[in-house]
């Protein structure tokens, strides 16, 4: 991996700050100062910053219980972002795995493993996502069949993939989809003449939101959870 990426993943420094440190001769590989940002770091190289050895970053995987009001973005001028909830070094190296709307709560996965992120979000993988929706109106009887058949959403050319919807008490329903179109659950429920008042993601593939996580808290994924995707 390039030295600038390697150091920025392993420390709190941004790529820009690493470039400055390289220019200033503060970064060494195997005791030799390195100035080129593209210098290749190999698995057994010893990298140091200001004379202190740096430990290589391992891939990180987290589940967060997203509260409403936090944006799924790395930075934003108007709202706090989900990354603000993480007390982790090198937060800028983390990626949000599939987005939730500002007002949606529940399971959000965060990683710095780009290939794993792709495995979860790639439409080809058809990874199932389950949501609990609170509705403005009782769900119509035909919704189950319409979701199963696929719904042609406004301004789209292809119907949605087969999905399930289960009616629950108190105007709630549980929806499982295997795509990630823009506002998909809200639009599908809108297409059956309803309106979502609250939306909460419960599950992605085999990973369920840990019931011990309160809103805004997070934990690392277990090895089993990571390899279940
Ligand atoms: N579908 C939506 O409409 N919103 C979300 O946040 C996630 C899925």
TrEMBL record:
Give the highest taxon in the source lineage.
Bacteria
EC number(s) given by UniProt:
5.4.99.-
Which transformation does this protein catalyse, written as a reaction?
uridine(516) in 16S rRNA = pseudouridine(516) in 16S rRNA
Kindly report, in one word, the top-level EC class recorded for this enzyme.
isomerase
**CDD domains, alphabetized:** PseudoU_synth_RsuA, S4
Alphabetized, the UniProt keywords read: Isomerase, RNA-binding
First and last residue of the signal peptide: none
Using the record's annotation, list all stretches that form the RNA-binding S4 domain.
1-55
A Pfam family cross-referenced in the UniProt record is: PseudoU_synth_2
A GO molecular function annotation here is: 16S rRNA pseudouridine(516) synthase activity
**InterPro entries in UniProt:** PsdUridine_s_RsuA/RluB/E/F_cat (IPR042092), PsdUridine_synth_cat_dom_sf (IPR020103), PsdUridine_synth_RsuA/RluA (IPR006145), PsdUridine_synth_RsuA/RluB/E/F (IPR000748), PsdUridine_synth_RsuA/RluB_CS (IPR018496), RsuA_PseudoU_synthase (IPR050343), S4_RNA-bd (IPR002942), S4_RNA-bd_sf (IPR036986)
The task this protein performs is described as: Responsible for synthesis of pseudouridine from uracil-516 in 16S ribosomal RNA.
Tell me its family: Belongs to the pseudouridine synthase RsuA family.
PANTHER family in alphabetical order: PSEUDOURIDINE SYNTHASE, PSEUDOURIDINE SYNTHASE FAMILY PROTEIN-RELATED
Protein name, please? Pseudouridine synthase
What does UniProt list as this organism's lineage? Bacteria, Pseudomonadati, Pseudomonadota, Gammaproteobacteria, Cellvibrionales
